[in-house]
């Protein structure tokens, strides 16, 4: 059984669209969210910690809004910025930019305590935190603990984590729409904000859905 580590049942329902019936369940576990400038190390650290807690295959996600004209801000700090500044203030800051392009990104971290079969994507063997099936312009992600302390099993054997990234491009606009949550009202993709889309439409193009699609294809061979 695969455990999706989240307090949000909606994420599990979205995962069920891509995975076999009955193969995924929600795990409510408060893992440590480290401070990092990229999503990969956060998801990797969380996946290792959750696996040690559950003793079963786990899936952890981290997501954020990356505004190109602000060098990717708020990125991994999106939840904190939403809580402290609010989405309208973020939109006001972006409104003064010449470039208001943005992207929602989601990184999934998978850990099951075993080595991974060979695949085209690099795998964490202890010398890197993990590697991403990345969106445009991205490459491998660095580790979360340069000392290696978070990377090894008892006895010094590496604890692999595999990362999968979903990416959806768009731009920052004035708030529109009554649906969704978080930054959805100010993020426009293909002429609609995420808050204007119904659930099926949003899930079909979402960054999490795209990451889940990559993961499901790889996981089918596990």
Automatic annotation (TrEMBL):
The keyword Hydrolase applies. Residues 119-154 are annotated as: Disordered. GO terms for biological process: nucleoside triphosphate catabolic process. It comes from Halorubrum aidingense JCM 13560. Residues 138-154 have a biased composition (Basic and acidic residues). Gene3D superfamilies: 3.90.950.10. GO terms for molecular function: nucleoside triphosphate diphosphatase activity. This is Ham1 family protein. Keywords: Hydrolase. Signal peptide: none annotated. One of its GO terms (cellular component) is cytoplasm. It comes from the Archaea. Transmembrane segments: none annotated. The keyword Hydrolase applies. Belongs to the HAM1 NTPase family. InterPro entries: ITPase-like_fam, RdgB/HAM1.
């Amino acid at each position: 059984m695969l455990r999706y580590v989240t307090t949000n049942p909606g994420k599990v329902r979205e995962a069920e669209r891509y995975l076999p019936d009955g193969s995924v369940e929600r795990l409510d576990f408060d893992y440590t969210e480290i401070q990092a400038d990229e999503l990969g190390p956060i998801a990797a650290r969380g996946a290792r910690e959750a696996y040690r807690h559950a003793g079963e295959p786990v899936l952890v996600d981290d997501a954020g809004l990356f505004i190109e004209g602000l060098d990717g801000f708020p990125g991994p700090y999106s939840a904190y910025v939403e809580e402290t500044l609010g989405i309208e203030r973020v939109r006001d800051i972006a409104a003064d930019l010449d470039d208001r392009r943005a992207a929602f990104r989601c990184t999934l971290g998978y850990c099951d305590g075993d080595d991974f079969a060979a695949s085209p994507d690099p795998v964490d063997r202890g010398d890197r935190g993990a590697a991403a099936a990345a969106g445009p312009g991205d490459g491998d992600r660095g580790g979360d603990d340069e000392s290696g302390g978070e990377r090894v099993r008892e006895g010094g054997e590496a604890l692999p984590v595999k990362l999968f990234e979903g990416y959806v491009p768009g731009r920052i606009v004035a708030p529109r729409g009554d649906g969704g949550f978080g930054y959805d009202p100010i993020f426009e993709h293909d002429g609609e904000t995420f808050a204007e889309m119904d659930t099926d439409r949003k899930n079909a193009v979402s960054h999490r859905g795209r990451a889940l699609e990559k993961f499901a294809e790889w996981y089918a061979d596990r």
